[in-house]
Amino acid sequence: MVALLLSACSREREPQPLRHTGIKIVPAGTKLARAPGAKGTIIDMPTREVRVVLVRPDGAAARAGFHAGDVIRAVAGEEVGNEEEVERLLHGNDAGKVMVEVRRDNLLETLALVGGADPGWLLLSGDTFKGFLLTRLRAHRTRRRVVSGQPFPLLHLPGFLGPDLNSRRWRGRPAAVLFFTTFSEPCYILLQALRRSCQQAGKQGRQVVCAAVDTLELFTAVKQTREFQAELEKIRIEFWPRAPLGVDLFMRAESLLGVDKAPVLFLLDEGGRVSSRLDAGELSVQRLQQAFQQLLATSGDRQGGEP
């Protein structure tokens, strides 16, 4: 998974609003930063914090003992505060293990990570988060909304407990893509319904690409880091065990597709065009099943295969 890190200055000072936005960046451990557009969501992110947001359970970081929520303080004996420093120190030790100091529940631990290998984690820190907020505010003025009849844009996201999600690989087959959020029972019911529809199509010899994307989650990942990791693992085991599961932490679906509220279902024809879009408020199990059957009825694909 991609490693993204944040940094911010460590000197104590009064919070200053960023120009033209009203966003306040404050020193960690003393006050909270409120992210606009999240309807009251309060983000508490310490300055110069490099936080492990997600850990792939089968990755090198998990085997080394890293947990979601760990704060990386030093790598190979050197303090770190940005992505370049972590990458440099990890990949500059290809020959053996690298000692990484982390803070976990206000206790310090030292873990040994194999240098040069992909840790299989997602890291986050303040500058990246701040930059995302500014980009998101600008994107609200220009973002597009993809509807029926339009091409589905290229969407390439890291996968959770599976390969990356890449829409380019779907060409030539019809596809059903459900965008959802964690801690949402209605989304979980729809995930199960889509899974059943895909399994039934496979039994009938119909090959349909079925994928799910967790999106609109950055604030959740920052506020409830460990819970977010645990919930994704639960989803992978209970609701969506086999088909592609993408993690859209930085809300690409919002900017590329106009997905600003979940759940949203896209059904695509073999040519990669949207044949149907069902948004939150109009999407139900019955509507999902009807739209899926319509997709099969208009598809020329009758090859066998498990979705």
Describe the overall structure.
The protein folds into two domains: 16-137, PDZ domain (Pdz3 Domain, Roll), CATH 2.30.42.10; 144-298, Glutaredoxin (3-Layer(aba) Sandwich), CATH 3.40.30.10. 30% of the residues lie in helices and 23% in strands. The protein has eight helices and 17 strands. It has helices spanning 60-64, 83-91, 126-142, 185-203, 218-223, 225-239, 252-257, 285-298; strands spanning 16-17, 24-25, 33-34, 42-43, 50-55, 71-75, 78-79, 97-104, 107-114, 121-124, 156-157, 165-166, 175-180, 209-215, 245-248, 264-268, 274-278. The strands form five sheets. Strands 5, 6, 7, 8, 9 and 10 form a six-stranded antiparallel sheet that branches. It has a five-stranded mixed sheet with strand order 15-14-13-16-17. The two termini are 24 Å apart.
Main attributes of the structure:
Glutaredoxin, alpha+beta, Pdz3 Domain, 30% helix
Structural class: alpha+beta
3D shape: elongated
Range of helix content: 25-40%
Tally the helices. 8
N-end to C-end Cα span: 24 Å
